[in-house]
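Hi R.,

Here's the chain you asked about this morning:
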Amino acid sequence: MDSFEFNKIAAAILIALLTIKGADLISNHLIEPNMLKENVYKIAGVSPSSSGAPAEATKKGPAPIEPLLATANIQQGEAAFKKCTSCHTIEKGGPNRIGPDLYGVVGAPKGQHPGYVYSSALEKKGGTWTLDDLNEWLYSPRDFVPGTKMSFVGVKDDKERADLIAYMMKQSDSPMPLPEVKEAVPQESKKEGD
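And the predicted structure, written out as tokens:
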């Protein structure tokens, strides 16, 4: 093949590419898309925000624990605790693993289990493990104690977290009772002028 044939082939390829690119540029100027302000098809559970994230995904923080504990199921909490057994035990005098033994953790001081070395962030947190603190911690350990060495992502499901806390409450020498379910008392509406 001589150089003249090679030049003709290269020129043909170049002209084809320029023609395609030119057609693309011209078509972008001729056709302007009309963007819709809202979706034509509504999808259940999706907020009309531009992010397209479900409305539940924007929820920040855990639900209050007291009402959830009133209907918590200890057996389901025991099943949920199986997620924790790769790092923790929950038996009296149980060994520390990657994390400390959690027997009697409700009401115990934070960052002070014998024989376990905590992160400085958790030691500085101080106080005792209240139900509200456990609720926040189990929802997102890294948000509750920034700098913690616990790598667990958290339990986002409110019911599962309440079941887990109820189970942990019972694993103690003197377990706290679960709150009783309170029935809603209807309030009488006041008349105008009262």
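The first helix runs from residue 3 to 30.

Let me know if you need anything else.
M.
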